[in-house]
Design goal:
Radius of gyration of chain A: 19 Å
Main location (chain B): membrane
Family (chain B): Belongs to the binding-protein-dependent transport system permease family. FecCD subfamily.
CATH superfamily of chain B: ABC transporter involved in vitamin B12 uptake, BtuC
Largest interface: A-B, 44 and 31 residues
Strand content of chain A: 25-35%
Keywords (chain B): Cell membrane, Membrane, Transmembrane, Transmembrane helix, Transport
Number of strands of chain B: 0
Distance between the termini of chain A: 37 Å
Helix content of chain B: over 70%
Strand content of chain B: under 5%
Shape of chain B: globular
Structural class of chain B: mainly alpha
CATH class of chain B: Mainly Alpha
Strand order of the largest sheet of chain A: 6-7-8-3-9-10
Order of helices and strands of chain A: EEEHEEHEHHHEHEHEEHHEE
Largest sheet of chain B: none
CATH architecture of chain B: Orthogonal Bundle
Largest sheet of chain A: 6 strands, mixed
Distance between the termini of chain B: 31 Å
Subcellular location (chain B): Cell membrane
Structural class of chain A: alpha/beta
Number of domains of chain B: 1
Shape of chain A: globular
Number of helices of chain B: 15
Radius of gyration of chain B: 20 Å
CATH topology of chain B: ABC transporter involved in vitamin B12 uptake, BtuC
Membrane topology (chain B): Multi-pass membrane protein
Oligomer: heterodimer
Amino acid sequence: MNPQTPAPTRLRARGVHLGYGEHTVVDGVDLDVPTGRVTVIVGANGSGKSTLLRGLGRLMRPTRGSVELDGVDLYRRPPREVARVLGLLPQHPIAPEGITVAALVARGRHPHRGAFRRWDSTDADAVATALARTDLAELADRRVEELSGGQRQRVWVAMALAQEPELLLLDEPTTYLDLAHQVDLLDLLAELNAERGTTVVMVLHELALAARYADHLVVLHRGRVLRAGPPGEVLDAACLAEAFGLEARVLEDPVSGTPLVVPIGRRRVRIGSPY
Amino acid sequence: MSVVAIAPLRLPARVLRRTAVHAGLVAAVLAVGCLALMLGDYRLTVGQVLGALVGDPGPAHFVVVELRAPRWVLGVLVGLAFGVSGALFQTSLRNPLASPDVLGVSQGASAAAVATLLVGGASGWAMTAAAAGGGVLVGVLLYAVAWKQGTTGQRFVLSGIGVAYLAGSVVGYLLTRSDVRDAQAALTWMTGSLGQSSWQLVQVLGPVLLVLLPLAALLARGLDLLQLGDDRAASLGRRPEVVRGGAVLLGVLLASAATAAAGPVAFVAFAAAPIARRLLGDGTPGLAASGLVGVVLVTASDVVAQHLLPVDVPVGIVTGALGAPVLIWLLARRRTS
């Protein structure tokens, strides 16, 4: 994939303002989500990352501006129709007590089923594929509460896969996972993007992983887009200083060649180093 | 009623369990019904009861069809209404404490009914209508107080407890200011009793449920998604506020209708859904199963209250005695998990 060619966009934010009551969190964001790519949104705590993602996913109505899917305002389309194209995995979904992995993943089929349409082989296939992709086929009959944190997160991703969205939004999908499971989950999403062409938009905290997995990196600062583009062009010392108030060196990740952020704190800096 | 949202995937064991639970509950309802029609001053055999039901003339016919059947059928309707109402509240607000009897809907109905009886001097149908009105009024009040965008179950429960106390103090005031005999009648009604059962009452409550229960069934799939959290439900294409609003509205109407007919039969709405969900064990809202558990609770308790206790007591005393341990069990389990 050549990041130089401008990718077409299906999901677009135009002058979007989002807030809770009087408090504005996202303050006029324009964003074209490149289709078929992985977009990662980063920013300091309170910069409006999750709120922007909620706006993009039709969970929050913009107070000003609009979010368009295929050129039509998200709020001018019925929610179920949007849900067939656009999936969102929120930060804290709830698993009903006693539910099994397969039953929970099957809930993802909801947008594809009419009010009285019965479960059919299309639904069963989608669920089976989602379980297989996330290595959960063996655990299909287990109760979700019996699983480990990493497995549980895979269940939620599997449910999002069963929904078969063309665009998938994820709010900090790697929270509470150890590093190995974080990489594992991001690999899974990268595979999904590469093999099915699913457009992925996610909020991440960990900058090294964000830079590695993003085709398109969006840095938010105080509810506005500070920079957007390929990670190599976006993440530099000046950007980090402004967005995070962090003095840092940006090296090249020896594994992926993407930017690797090395923070310079006040303590623990090696004697004799230039910092 | 069971619009089962999700056909489980190659899980015959779960389907089997679901079917078995529903079949078992229906069997329990019928068994209790048989007992209810047999027991009394004039004891009948199963054969006599069945004979009377299919239309054999004779003394058994009058006892079964005119005296005992209305009471049992009313118990069935009241149990269904309370059971489904509790499930609607608890699932849509995602809080096991959020049942109509905790939220003050039953208390509001009581306050209105008692006021009609003690202040207005009216009883019977006027009291029934007032109870329904009082329950709905509390529902509206709760909406107004607790309804904010993204309203949480917690907020509803806290507001509801406040409303319940308010209604309780209205009842207390009225009782202390009224004649002893009137107060006695009011108290019996407030305990929850099937004593005023008649075919006329069944003919009122029956059609009401015939309208409300299918509407509740239509909400089943939405409730199923609401359990995953508002955000996940919304991102699967369901408007969480619409589902929750509909569920609470139907829950208020069902609880008010049942309270109007039999008084606030304690703990049935509260305990039915947790018991049903425990039996099903598959994480579904279990509206139908909750209704059936409600029926078993009310009708079995009434059999106990009428025939197995040394004195004839209102059914609400027995359901209250059974429900309290359920409440403690639920709270204890919640803390440990």
